[in-house]
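Sequence design from tokenized structure. All designs in this work follow the same two-part layout: the structure record, then the generated sequence. An example of the structure record is given first.
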């Protein structure tokens, strides 16, 4: 699918400013939408909004369908009559520059629990009706997810594959018993998902009404300890005890000399193909109800998977296995028509991957940071971009532009300055100009690059397990001067809808 010429900003909601320890769907999110409008932008790109597990990575979640309840706005719960204003006044003192996930989780869990108890004791009719409708409409995934989270909590958060066999293997009688025993906890989980969906869809509506479209993100893989795997064990390459036969990763590459060992279980694609990719069809349909455009992560994995034997500590000793990507995307195209999808096609590009992308007209990605190795034919240099692609200065997995330039090799810096005609005093703006001016239909700028921030503002360092996903935007940092400057570039290079 070809997108109209436009641009946008990459900023995960956890990075929004605010006094409750983590960005959320409250007032600051609407302020950011207003900034995008003033800056002449069309897109707000976010990372996956799923409930994060160990390491707080949005790419390793407890569910591919549920939402991260840490993003629920406390102010929104007050407005709904679920909490008193005293809860906000008595909030802990959180750090402003980064997310302290442990501290945030403890406080948010307590106020969400109280909100549910207040709802149970004195339900507001309109809210109660909406909750029941949400629960019924989403029962196909919500019932199992809520049970999964409630059982996990009752088991001291042990992963599902360490539960007793009847629960681990989903014995019908055992599940009926535990659903009865944990009825209150299961209903609470459903209610929290209702609040997430309610607030997110209201925010998306606000964005859409102001001309802003949301680019969401779907990780190709799901976490082993997730409701998805627990409920669909036959669709993954698992041993009888639930442990993975093989896990996902990538071979040694630009980011890591030993490769990246993600540890996610790998789909049994033949089983998925046999039921006409029902799970994937449901996943895409659900995503398109919550965002306007989908970014598919690790698109190479739809052509072939790097499979590492379970129990290995690095990804070096893996091997490639083919994936029926053409069959999957043919099924999706039949179901949805032209897919509003961007594909993350970074890494070692093969003819098979390129053919899969191009045969369905899916725009890939170009990363300007990767272009300055001195080779004028480098595909990440703007003069080599195709129109049907999405151009980034960098992504959440890259250093910031200022951080990249500071750590780059001398010949890379020299080529960068020469290519951009830059004196490097405002290199971040020179790079922004380069992707905005390119022929790429879509240009996306990380918020950190608008501010010229260094490595301290990096969102993620691949192949590391700590210190990631914590960066937060300072309140008021995105000034009118920045919005005017970005709007001027977007208008100059025909990326605003009113040009």
């Amino acid at each position: 699918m070809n997108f109209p010429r436009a641009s946008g900003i990459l900023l995960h909601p956890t990075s929004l400013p605010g006094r409750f320890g983590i960005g959320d769907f409250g007032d600051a999110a609407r302020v950011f939408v207003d900034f995008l409008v003033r800056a002449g932008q069309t897109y707000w790109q976010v990372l996956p909004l799923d409930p994060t597990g160990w390491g707080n990575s949005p790419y390793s979640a407890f569910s591919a369908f549920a939402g991260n309840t840490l993003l629920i706005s406390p102010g929104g719960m007050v407005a709904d009559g679920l909490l008193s204003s005293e809860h906000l006044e008595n909030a802990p003192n959180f750090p402003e520059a980064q997310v302290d996930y442990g501290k945030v989780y403890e406080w948010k869990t307590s106020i969400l629990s109280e909100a549910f108890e207040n709802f149970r004791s004195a339900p507001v009719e309109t809210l109660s009706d909406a909750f029941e409708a949400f629960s019924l409409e989403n029962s196909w995934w919500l019932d199992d997810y809520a049970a999964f989270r409630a059982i996990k909590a009752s088991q001291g958060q042990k992963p599902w594959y360490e539960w007793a066999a009847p629960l681990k293997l989903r014995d019908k009688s055992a599940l009926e018993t535990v659903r009865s025993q944990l009825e209150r906890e299961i209903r609470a989980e459903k209610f929290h998902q209702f609040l997430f969906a309610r607030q997110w869809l209201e925010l998306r509506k606000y964005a859409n009404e102001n001309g802003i479209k949301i680019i969401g993100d779907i990780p190709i893989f799901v976490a082993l300890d997730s409701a998805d795997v627990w409920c669909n064990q036959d669709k993954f390459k698992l041993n009888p005890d639930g442990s993975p036969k093989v896990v996902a990763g990538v071979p040694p590459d630009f980011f890591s000399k030993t490769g990246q060992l993600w540890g996610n279980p790998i789909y049994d694609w033949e089983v998925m193909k046999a039921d006409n990719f029902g799970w994937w069809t449901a996943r895409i349909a659900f995503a398109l109800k919550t965002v306007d455009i989908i970014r598919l992560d690790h698109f190479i994995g739809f052509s072939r998977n790097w499979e590492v034997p379970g129990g290995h500590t690095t990804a070096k000793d893996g091997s490639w296995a083919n994936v029926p990507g053409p069959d999957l995307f043919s099924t999706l195209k039949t179901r949805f028509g032209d897919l509003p999808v961007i594909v993350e096609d970074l890494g070692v590009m093969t003819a098979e991957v390129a053919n899969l992308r191009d045969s369905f007209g899916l725009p890939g990605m170009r990363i300007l940071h990767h272009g300055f190795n001195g080779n004028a034919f480098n595909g990440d240099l703007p003069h080599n971009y195709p129109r049907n692609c999405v151009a980034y200065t960098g992504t959440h997995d890259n250093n910031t532009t200022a951080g990249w330039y500071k750590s780059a090799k001398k010949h890379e810096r020299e080529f960068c300055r020469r290519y951009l005609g830059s004196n490097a005093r405002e290199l971040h703006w020179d790079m922004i100009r380069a992707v905005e001016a390119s022929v790429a239909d879509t240009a996306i700028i990380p918020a950190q690059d608008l501010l010229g921030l260094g490595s301290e503002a990096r969102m993620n360092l691949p192949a590391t397990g700590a210190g990631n996903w914590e960066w937060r935007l300072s309140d008021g940092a995105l000034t009118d001067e920045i919005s005017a400057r970005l709007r001027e570039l977007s208008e100059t290079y025909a990326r605003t809808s009113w040009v």
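The chain has a mean pLDDT of 95. We note this feature because it recurs in several other targets discussed in the main text.
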